[in-house]
Design brief:
Layout (H helix, E strand, L loop, with lengths): L1 E3 L2 E4 L3 H12 L4 E5 L24 H14 L3 E4 L2 E5 L5 E5 L4 E4 L1 E4 L25 H4 L7 E5 L3 H10 L5 E5 L11 H9 L3 E3 L1
Parallel strand pairs: 1-7, 2-3, 2-8, 3-4, 9-10, 10-11
Antiparallel strand pairs: 5-6, 6-7
Helix pairs in contact: 1-2, 4-5
């Protein structure tokens, strides 16, 4: 049996929850489908001091407040995974892993992102306690420490440069020969000139 919604939002991170707040506030029948934990990547941050209006909170607390806000306006939040989308015609159909079929004219895709993990011993256990995937979220925890960044693209090099504002030393582990990075040339030049950065 199919269920009709005004808005179906795929993804329950901050963007999906914000869309749910607006949909619910507009008195539109809104559902947010999240396959994992509501809150997305923001949920993995143990201390958050850079979100406007919240001087000191945690990722889980902030995203729980967002979810409560969306529910207060009537948005439904469901843990389920989208397995098929049919976009032909005015009414779109979504099928989920839990055998639900949902129909709507409006789909908002807010699936966010996931970091590329190394899959090494201790990585999962230390996430949020020494292993981080967001320099602007967590760099201040590494004041006066030696930090290792893995990668050689734009995100890795730019985040490494940001971390040098706090850390004593940043080592970037790259996959290429010395002097070759995949990031943009401006960032590469700045990183090579930064006395706190070394490359392996």
């Amino acid at each position: 049996m199919s269920e009709l919604y005004d808005i179906i939002i795929i993804g329950g991170g901050p963007a999906g929850l914000a869309a749910g707040i607006y949909g619910g506030r507009a008195k539109l029948k809104t559902v947010i489908l999240e396959k994992g934990s509501v809150g997305g990547m923001a949920c993995t941050t143990r201390e958050m001091v850079n979100y406007p209006g919240f001087k000191n909170t945690t990722g889980p607390d902030l995203t729980a407040a967002m979810a409560d806000h969306a529910r207060e306006f009537g948005a439904e939040i469901t843990r389920d995974e989208v397995v098929e989308i049919e976009l032909n015609g005015d009414i779109k159909t979504i099928k989920t892993k839990k055998d639900r079929e949902l129909r709507t004219q409006t789909i908002i895709v807010a699936v966010g992102s996931q970091p590329r993990r190394l899959n090494i011993p201790g990585e999962k256990e230390m996430q949020g306690n020494g292993v981080s995937y967001c320099a602007t979220c967590d760099a201040d925890f590494y004041q006066d420490l030696h930090v290792v960044v893995v990668g050689n693209g734009d995100a890795a090099v730019e985040e490494a440069m940001y971390i040098t504002r706090f850390a004593n030393k940043v080592t970037i582990i790259v996959i290429h020969d010395e002097g070759h990075l995949d990031c943009n040339k401006v960032s590469a030049a700045k990183a090579f000139q930064n006395p706190k950065i070394e490359f392996i």
